[in-house]
Amino acid sequence: MTDELQREEERGVSILLRYQGPAVDDGTMNVYDAAANMVAFSNFVVTAAHKLYGEDVQVTADITAFKHASFGTDLMFQVVQATAATLPMLPNLISVATTVKESIELYRFLKGEEPAKVQHINDHSINVTNNSGNIIVVNTPSLHLTLDKKAGEAAAQFIGAALSKPGVNQIEISSDGAQLVQATTDDALFYHPIGNEETLTESTSRMGLVIESLSFKDGHKWKMWNGSETLGYAMEDDDFIGRVNNGEAFRKGDILTCDVRVTQTKSGTALKLQRVIVKVHDHKTALDQPDLDLGT
Q: Which of 18, 128, 187, 205 has the smallest number of Cβ neighbours within 10 A?
């Protein structure tokens, strides 16, 4: 990826989803279906950003257009300095829009089945063979997105389920006014999770972590320094969160002694590491540091 393109994506990207068909034309598309599709589409695009830039890149999605069964998703990227230095450099690739496009085409190419064969061409491109013996070339993040369980569940909603409803016969996804990809009712059965996520390793160890930033919003990870790098950690210690809600003070630079569970999973050819704080045993405050803004 060029520095210019990387800077563009750090500012954000907009992608539009549009449904077509009689139910759209006469305005009878179910409002609850539309809401579920809107959330699923946003989740899919956010997952695409994570496959491209890594799980530790913070991404927020805002719905910017909702009219006549169309809704746009604006993504804003927050790339912390430690993460920015390790962002993948993918020449001739790549944007979140490209990743979304290739993934949706790949679902259709695979017909909802696991690849028969995956062959790496280089660090960025992969030959994917389907069960009919046909081959397609995609970028690595696009395959990882297609094989991601959560992305598959999202695609099953905003494509598979939507195109199975009477009166909806096509979706189109576009960015900056240009069509990226489309799918029709003939493709509906191909959009669902492909393969099963398998746990390869799981271990829990006690370690000290320095607070850099934290959030109590659902799905947001705490940024912690482990002595060598800053990484995102999910917080599952409800007792500790309760102490914070009851007024326990925090400062940037505080050290938590925690039990941390690290799980490595595999879905198709994609590997993923999840880091979770399961228990906080000790909290040491930092001296002469400004108060940490918890956003309350």
A: 205
